[in-house]
Amino acid sequence: MSELVTGEAVALELRPARLPSRALAVLLDLVAAMAVYVAVTVALVVSTASLDEAAQTALSIATFVLVLVGAPIAVETLSHGRSLGKMACGLRVVRDDGGPIRFRHALVRGLIGVIEILMTFGVVACIASFVSARGRRLGDVFAGTLVVRERIPVARTGFVPPPPPWLAGRFSGLDLSAVPDGLWLAVRQYLTRMQQLDPQVGWSMAQRLASDLAERTGAPVPQGVPAAAYLAAVVQERQAREARRAFGSGPGKAAPASATDGVPAAGVVTTAPEPRVVPPGPVSEPPGGGGRPSESPEVPAVDERPRTGFVPPA
């Protein structure tokens, strides 16, 4: 791994490409470039057969320069350091600070590559790569670039380390409503990668993020609490609040009672059977006549359950 320090004093760990992978990428680029060069040359010979020998020679030189020199420079500039061979091998050309290359970097690499790759059949480039600690050829040295590997094993990311147990629940009363999403993202990225940062750089970043977070919440960082532990505890408190908001009060807890008796709580739907209402009607006489009303008329059953105040519509 090679550590590159960016303008923000962040140490980047990159894996430089070694000679075998770079040689394979250059070979694939040369094969593609030679195929295009042969096709263009054949087309020019057929179309310029009526020209004199001097014109044909000038066109051949121009074709060689444009296809074998200009085309790789244009491809690396437009693709930000990824030619056809580098794409196949998982490589990329970057600046010394880890940023994408520009036209001037690709131009210097292409012009010097004509001498150390095409004219010397790659001997100078191989010797320079063996001597360099990061496998750079002369074109990379003069252009200030580095060829790195993009296909590397993915490290375990996205895991926020838990805070110390003695900080559990200490920030339950903290107001987190004024903290923007960008600050939460920066804190989470720092916590997931703080083991990969330089200790001094990581400490300064934690101090800055903790001060920004304390300013947004309106409460200072407690004395004796490390900045990284403070950030982890606040992030855990935010995650706990989001979990309570998403899943409610959780299983096993009773729903909140309503302030008005008989009215269900918000969000709770209750279905109660309607009371049976028997409309009044004429009292039936017993069979056999006599005009004597029934001594024990049938009385409809009355629902003994507590009233809910519900009146059915007319």
From TrEMBL:
The chain crosses the membrane at residues 24-46, 58-78, 111-131. It is found in: Membrane. Residues 276-285 have a biased composition (Pro residues). Keywords: Membrane, Transmembrane, Transmembrane helix. PANTHER family: SLR0254 PROTEIN. Residues 243-314 are annotated as: Disordered. This is Membrane protein. It is a multi-pass membrane protein. Residues 246-259 have a biased composition (Low complexity). Residues 17-144 form the RDD domain.
